[in-house]
Amino acid sequence: MTANRTRIGLGVWAALQRQRRACARPAVAILAKAFFVSLLACSLLPRLATSAQDAEHSSNPLSALFSPQAQPVGTGSLKRANFERERASAEARHVADWVIDSGDNRSMPFAIVDKTDAKVFVFDAKGRLRGAAPALLGLALGDDAVPGIGDRPLSSIRPEERTTPAGRFEAALDRNLRGKEILWVDYDGAVSMHPVVTTKPEERRAQRLATPTPLDNRISYGCINVPAKFFETVVRTAFTGTNGIVYVLPETRTAREVFASYDVEERARRQTASHTVPVQVASGADPH
């Protein structure tokens, strides 16, 4: 009897244990599932927050202006003429730089005649200096040619009318009535660039070219006289087979007035300022 009770008691105890284990398994599964879900949520929260921020940022039209990555927009490098180590006035450099930056020479060789310094600079189409030399210019100061002067004989031209006109001229090599090669500058005004004329020894034109000062370089009727070697090796070489542009700088007005030129650096600064993106204002800072 006692043995039977013992067997019955053990059976009941085993059944209870099986029931307890059966009940415990769902609880453990639930706990494990809950733990896994919590881990997944933790991993997704930063991504969801970032997506929400991105959506808000993209929907705000000002966000592009005030993002931390916003940087000033550049305008590229300046275009300048290359004077090598040749001395040149600020006005000559101003015009040469403007010519290259604006493309006013239309990809042709060009020359700059600085009347104040009595000097000629010849450049290739890309603005590289091919040579420079002193020049003889019209006797009279002034930037305008007398109307119809090109049709008048030299003997009728008064001293005050002997000017080298300022301006932009399309030039080409040609020959004068004596068969000498010249570079026509202003055909209607009978102004050309040519080797120095030495037919009148009393004018001492070659000697005037050789002096270091421009004060004695005003002697011609308006044409631009340059050293013969310079004309042959620089002017003739630069303009052979092509037209070109000659810029004669003014002496009674400014280059900006005559050519409608601009300062290359000043223009670049304005472009940079107009393309600069505003800097981000820090959170909580007073923008004023």
Question: Can you walk through the features of this model?
Answer:
The chain is 37% helix and 17% strand. The protein has 288 residues and is α/β, with parallel strands linked by helices. It has 2 domains: 60 residues; 182 residues, Beta Barrel (L,D-transpeptidase catalytic domain-like). The longest helix has 58 residues.
Provide keyphrases for this structure.
single chain, 8-stranded mixed β-sheet, alpha/beta, 17% strand, disordered C terminus, 288 residues, L,D-transpeptidase catalytic domain-like, disordered N terminus, 6 helices, two-stranded parallel ribbon, globular, 2 domains
Report low-confidence residues grouped into runs of 5 or more.
1-10, 22-75, 281-288
Q: Please state the overall shape, judged from the principal axes of the Cα atoms.
A: globular
Number of domains: 2
Q: How much is the average pLDDT? A: 80
- Helical run tally: 6
Structural class: alpha/beta
